[in-house]
Please model this.
Amino acid sequence: MEKIIAPKGTKDIFHPDILQWRNLEERILGFFSSYGYREIRTPLFEHSELFSRSIGDETEVVQKEMYTFVDKGGRSLTLRPENTASVVRAAIENQLFNRLSPLRFLYIGPMFRYDKPQKGRYRQFHQFGVEIFGEDHPFLDAELIESAHRFLTTLGIRNTELLINSVGCPVCRPLYLDRLRQAAEGHRPDFCADCQRKIDKNPLRIFDCKVPGCRELARELPLLGEELCDECREHHEGVKSGLDSLGVSYREDPMLVRGLDYYQRTAFEIVGGHEGAQNALLGGGRYNGLIRELGGGDVSGIGFAAGMERLLLHMPGNEQREEKGIYIAYQSLEQMPETLKMARELREEGFTVLSEYGVKGLKKLMKRADRAAAAITLILGEEEIAAGRVTVKSMSDQKQSQIERKELLPWLRKQN
Ligand code: HAM
Model:
């Protein structure tokens, strides 16, 4: 029979790699709690319309990458390709804007995109991200960007570059889009079929195209930076001055438009240079119009998300110390009831204990203790039990001795 394997672009995560995941998750929660973020968990699937309305119909994500299906009730649902839209939806639906303060959310979890799998790019991948609502000052943008940057440094990820841009607002962007459309129109036949459609529907998305010919042509197109309105320009200057005060270096990238339609003003990415891997470690920006677009009030928003697989790929070898356990072996099956009780007692005292039942022969059990990489093996035999003793064996030096049963707990505690 043919073996069933995991779907393309997905990965099983298990021991010992899972220790690095846990470590990363704990560091995320620890670091960002100092900014007042609180964790939020939203469903893994949402009504498809949530994403088409927020991310935008003409984006690569909505056009090509969504896992969309019709459920048995005839609803169109989509596995979340990102989480900003879901967090906004949850905040509006649960009226969190009136109930919580500060409105700072943090999430960790899987996202789904029908992307072409390669190193650092998967179809099920994990993001951690933060979202802040109702705070407008450009220094907040600077603080958020700095926190993302500093977090990568605490993980030991160096050689990164911070790219920033302003993608304008509903005042200045439409004027720019007209200019952009006109300029792109002049090269229409040279663009790929997708970009030709984007010229009519949403010309900003031409900058996301990965086709080399289109990327070349995009360099010739007018840039949004030249068309920013006074408020957007002032905001952008404010962000840069905040970053300067914090001593964060950045490069202005006028072609950084971030692939998702909801951004307004600040857009940023941190890229890293790991060979052969996808280099965007994290990205984010301001999305002041999104909450209104999804049926909430005039509340501003800003956030970022990082790809956790990519962080792990760029983190220097972080060996996790694994707590080694205690293995309980028995001379014969008669000592199994005593093993059962001792295992429970030691676990209640906080020890990690492995015991297996129905295994005949001490030799076999000792081999299993070795394979389980136990630090200590306790051996229960008929005579030891009768005399109120237990044999203890240190697996590192193979030294074996007998101790009083009542001395066992203090002895084990001393071994740590
Ligand atoms: P994004 O740039 O689409 O932004 O994704 C953020 C990060 O997720 C990327 O920089 C990358 O590290 C990771 N990522 C994206 N696709 C994949 C993939 N197929 N495999 C592995 N990692 C991937 C957003 O998702 C926005 N929601 C960020 C945001 C939050 N903006 C404001 N708030």
